[in-house]
Amino acid sequence: LVNSYQKNHIAHAQLFSGTEGSANLALALAYLTYLLCEDKTPEDACGVCASCQKIEKLIHPDVHFFFPGPGKGGDNKEKAEKITQQQKVIWREFLTKGSPYQALEDWSQLVDAENKKTQISKEDAKNIIRTVSMKSFGGSFKVILIWYPEMMHPSASNAILKVLEEPPKDTIYLLVSYNYESLLTTILSRSQLIQVPNFTDED
């Protein structure tokens, strides 16, 4: 991943695949931190610059997270937006106070979704399209991280195909998947697959 940056061969859509408990989300977070770091070392992000600190707190304006959630108010846009903002707050706590090794079940308990249909909705896809149309704040990369893309509603999957196929300049999509085979083949064909191995017992 570091070499791809140094050689200026960054795939605009990258699919981090692993089983639950593996390091695919942790690796995606480390990678986007490196991409936006203001004082990179030859091997990693510096971890101390303003950009690194903002990412650690999950408040960087050029990093956008999308993840499964329960129903968001149907056609009531105001209610849907309110629920989305509430879930973003919970997401930050989920990662900053928890860890990137948690499973979907852990997330569902936090957002009270155990008995509800959890998915990335068509409205989420519209938000992705709106987000990628904006310029980056820092003048560098704009990163869209989608956790569990296999849980996109079919209409959401179709909606983001165009922005995956024709991404705006300096926009990077990081798809963090635990069952990538269930994604649309058209999404798979537009993404560079990165297989993240499980930890060994010794690890």
Descriptive keywords:
alpha/beta; 203 residues
Overview of the structural elements:
By secondary structure, the chain is an alpha/beta fold. Helix content is 40%, strand content 13%. The chain contains eight helices and five strands, in the order αβααβαααβαβαβ. The chain has helices at 2-6, 24-36, 50-56, 77-98, 104-110, 122-132, 154-165, 185-189; strands at 13-17, 63-66, 142-147, 171-177, 192-195. The protein has a five-stranded parallel β-sheet, sandwiched between helices. The radius of gyration is 16 Å and the shape is globular. The two termini are 21 Å apart. The model has no long low-confidence stretch (mean pLDDT 89).
Produce the secondary structure layout.
Blueprint: H1 2-6, E1 13-17, H2 24-36, H3 50-56, E2 63-66, H4 77-98, H5 104-110, H6 122-132, E3 142-147, H7 154-165, E4 171-177, H8 185-189, E5 192-195
Parallel strand pairs: 1-4, 1-5, 2-3, 3-4
Short recap of the structure:
The protein has about 200 residues and is an alpha/beta fold. It has eight helices and five strands.
Measure the end-to-end span. 21 Å
**Uncertain runs:** none
- What is the topology, as strand order, of the major beta sheet? 2-3-4-1-5
Q: Percent of residues in beta strands?
A: 5-15%
How does the helix and strand content classify structurally?
alpha/beta
What is Rg? 16 Å
Q: Overall mean pLDDT score?
A: 89
